[in-house]
Amino acid sequence: MGLFTSAATAGLTEASAWAETRDKDDYWRGLFDHLSEGFVVGEVVRDAGGRVTDWTYVEVNPAWGDLPGIDPTTVVGWSVREVIPDIEDAWVDEFAEVVETGVVANFTRRIDTISCWYEGRAFRLDANRFGVIFLEVTQRVEAEARRSALLTLGDRLRDLTSTADMTRAAAEIVGRTLGATRAGFGRIEGDVEAIEINPDWTAPGIASIAGRHRFDDYGDLRGSLRRGEPLVIHDVATDPRTRDDPGPMKAIAIGALVNMPVRERGRTVAAFIVHDVEPRTWTGEELAFLRNVADRLEVGVARVRAEELQAVLNTELAHRLKNTLTVVQSIAT
């Protein structure tokens, strides 16, 4: 009887412990699944020499899938280079260092192929596994970049003394901040008939289009600019203003564009241009940024022109005064 009681007690204890473990597993699984942040457990992949070259997804919570836009049920067992083929090496190297050293890593990094920024924290679980908890911070990072760009632009415009230098500086700041492939500034001719583009900024491999261009050669583009509205095209192949013949746009590496007008006395007299070689959706925040840049650039250009005009007037006055003094001296003698 005692043996039976002892065995029964042991069995009940084991069953209770199993139930408690299961309850804990269910608790942690529920917490894992309901995190609003993405959470990944990864396992490093090593080459024959023991160097980490990749890592595989071991566990992925549902929130992770919402961040890169990938079904989380499809990635377990696959490597990160298989899931995102062109992912930057830093997404492997930093997690490899976490596993090797045990030092927790905090990061803010972009995945270029999906144009998103992520912020997170990686930590070692064992000799080959690590955990990462992270969230998407694209809007915050890009907003900070735009604010910083405006501050930099203000500083540069104060120091520059020629229109050409101002437009080149603004174009480079805008192009790099927005990740565009071309940016520039041009003066509008007539009733938005043509634009004379100043020397522009271009990404590597993209040709300059500085010079004169007729709007009608590229589509039905003049209406928005005439009304003082931004000309915004997300895809030249599908936009009704250019889709009938997108060839001229594509020939000069334009897949998407923004022309932000500058107005004077009710007329569009200039435009700040931004191009992307690929189609892209221009956000409201990006358009507000470009409006701010165009306004600041126009103020800076107006200041330089006023200074140049004043210098001409001063020279003319000095010349006339010299002539007057010469005449007076001639009469006096």
The SSE order reads HEEHHHEEEHHEEEEHEHEEH
Number of helical segments?
9
Which secondary-structure class do the elements indicate? Answer: alpha+beta
Mean pLDDT: 85
Low-confidence stretches: 1-12, 17-24
Strand residue content: 15-25%
CATH homologous superfamily heading of the largest domain:
GAF domain
Jot down its keywords:
GAF domain-containing protein; alpha+beta; 2 domains; GAF-like_dom_sf; 12 strands; 333 residues; PAS-like_dom_sf; GAF
Question: Secondary structure elements and their pairing?
Answer:
Elements: H1 2-34, E1 38-46, E2 52-60, H2 62-66, H3 80-83, H4 90-101, E3 105-111, E4 116-124, E5 129-136, H5 138-159, H6 163-178, E6 182-189, E7 194-197, E8 201-202, E9 211-214, H7 222-226, E10 231-233, H8 247-251, E11 256-264, E12 267-276, H9 284-332
Antiparallel strand pairs: 1-2, 1-5, 3-4, 4-5, 6-7, 6-8, 6-12, 7-9, 10-11, 11-12
InterPro entries: GAF, GAF-like_dom_sf, PAS-like_dom_sf
Protein name: GAF domain-containing protein
Pfam family, one: GAF
Folded structure, characterized:
Pfam families: GAF (PF01590). It comes from Methylobacterium phyllostachyos. This is GAF domain-containing protein. It is a single chain. The chain is α+β, with helices and mostly antiparallel strands. It folds into two domains: about 35-135, 2-Layer Sandwich (Beta-Lactamase), CATH 3.30.450.20; about 140-315, GAF domain (Beta-Lactamase). About 45% of the residues lie in helices and about 25% in strands. The chain is built from nine helices and twelve strands. The strands form two sheets. Strands 6, 7, 8, 9, 10, 11 and 12 form a seven-stranded antiparallel sheet that branches. A five-stranded antiparallel sheet has the order 2-1-5-4-3. Helix 5 (about 140-160) runs parallel beside helix 9 (about 285-330) and helix 6 packs antiparallel against helix 9. The longest helix is centred in the C-terminal third of the chain and has 49 residues, at about 285-330. Residues about 1-10 and about 15-25 have low confidence and may be disordered.
